[in-house]
């Protein structure tokens, strides 16, 4: 796959890859990785929780390629927390929609005309009039594509670890099966984005 920008607008991929102990796979793509601020706050907010501490350490020790993208929703929620107010429900989803729909958000990354890879799990993600250079990819789709490209030996092994973890202290997110099994979502950009370059 062409080395383009990877955007993570919801917490699912980070949570799932942590459960499988495979956050390192994001670095193997060799792409700039943009995480929406409210998502970063959500997955790193409790340093006493092993997942939050590990994800925070992973992102902070890999800047770049990680970049935290600010949103109005994320800034508003941080102000609420600083004022001692309880967290608002569905902040991650609201920030995701803010970022995907805002002209100053994801559209900035689309302006170059290069493919933009959006990695997500939230089934609430809706992209209307999908730009021709946007590639939509779920976590399972990512693993399947990495296997096809020879970057990952077995997608099934990682998926098994995400859905039935064997490491202590890890459990599947929300104790649910992935809704995009067995193949995942992998919707290439209309202008051409693929895992394997047919010309090579």
Helix content: 25-40%
Label the overall shape: globular
End-to-end separation in angstroms reads 12 Å
| Number of discrete helical segments | 9
Describe this structure in words.
It is a single chain. This protein is α/β, with parallel strands linked by helices and 200 residues long. The chain contains nine helices and six strands; from the N terminus they run βααβααβαααββααβ. The chain has helices spanning 12-19, 24-27, 37-44, 50-60, 72-82, 91-101, 106-110, 139-148, 155-163; strands at residues 5-8, 33-36, 66-69, 116-120, 134-138, 186-187. Strands 3-2-1-4-5-6 form a six-stranded mixed sheet. Helix 1 crosses helix 9 (155-163), helix 3 packs across helix 4 and helix 3 runs antiparallel to helix 6. The chain is globular. The N and C termini lie close together (12 Å). The relative contact order is 0.18.
What descriptive keywords fit this protein?
six-stranded mixed sheet; 38% helix; globular
What's the helix and strand layout?
Blueprint: E1 5-8, H1 12-19, H2 24-27, E2 33-36, H3 37-44, H4 50-60, E3 66-69, H5 72-82, H6 91-101, H7 106-110, E4 116-120, E5 134-138, H8 139-148, H9 155-163, E6 186-187
Parallel strand pairs: 1-2, 1-4, 2-3, 4-5
Antiparallel strand pairs: 5-6
Helix pairs in contact: 1-9, 3-4, 3-5, 3-6, 5-6, 8-9
């Amino acid at each position: 796959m062409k080395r383009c920008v990877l955007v993570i607008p919801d917490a699912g991929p980070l949570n799932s890859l942590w459960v499988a102990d495979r956050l390192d796979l994001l670095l193997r793509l060799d792409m700039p990785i943009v995480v929406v601020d409210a998502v970063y706050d959500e997955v790193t907010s409790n340093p006493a929780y092993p997942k939050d501490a590990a994800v925070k350490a992973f992102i902070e020790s890999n800047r770049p390629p990680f970049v935290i993208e600010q949103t109005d929703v994320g800034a508003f929620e941080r102000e609420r927390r600083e004022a001692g107010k309880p967290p608002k429900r569905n902040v991650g989803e609201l920030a995701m929609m803010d970022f995907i729909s805002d002209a100053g958000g994801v559209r900035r990354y689309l302006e170059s005309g290069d493919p933009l890879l959006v990695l997500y799990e939230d089934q609430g993600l809706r992209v209307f009039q999908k730009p021709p250079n946007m590639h939509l990819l779920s976590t399972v789709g990512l693993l399947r594509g990495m296997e096809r490209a020879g970057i990952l030996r077995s997608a099934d092994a990682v998926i098994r670890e995400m859905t039935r973890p064997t490491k202590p202290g890890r459990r599947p997110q929300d104790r649910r099966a992935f809704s995009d099994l067995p193949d995942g979502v992998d919707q290439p950009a209309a202008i051409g984005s693929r895992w394997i370059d047919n010309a090579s």
